[in-house]
Design goal:
mainly alpha; two-stranded antiparallel ribbon
Length: 97
């Protein structure tokens, strides 16, 4: 089971039941992960610029904080999913597979 980089409408995790890393859904999940990580890099860069601005307003800082929290949540979900897949791969290698 692969933890996908998105949640359902209720915020619960979504999983993909396949061991094929080249399936259509696996490739889509890989693309979404890459997009989310690129977005997180952009948000971090922009937030650092804003935080360096002494005259940044409360609204701007709050907006940046919300975007940073969203990006961190996405990044942690991706890391968790990749960790599970890495563990599974290491287990298969340990079994001689």
């Amino acid at each position: 089971m692969r933890l996908l980089p998105w949640t359902n409408a209720q915020g619960a995790p979504c999983y993909l039941s396949t061991d094929d890393p080249h399936s259509r859904m696996s490739r889509l999940a890989d693309e979404v992960e890459a997009d989310l990580l690129d977005s997180a890099e952009y948000v971090l860069k922009e937030a650092r610029t804003l935080l360096a601005e002494p005259k940044a307003g409360e609204g701007e800082l709050r907006f940046a904080g919300v975007r940073l929290a969203e990006s961190l949540e996405d990044t942690l979900r991706i890391a968790a999913g990749r960790g599970v897949r890495l563990d599974a791969e290491l287990m298969r290698e340990g079994d001689g597979g």
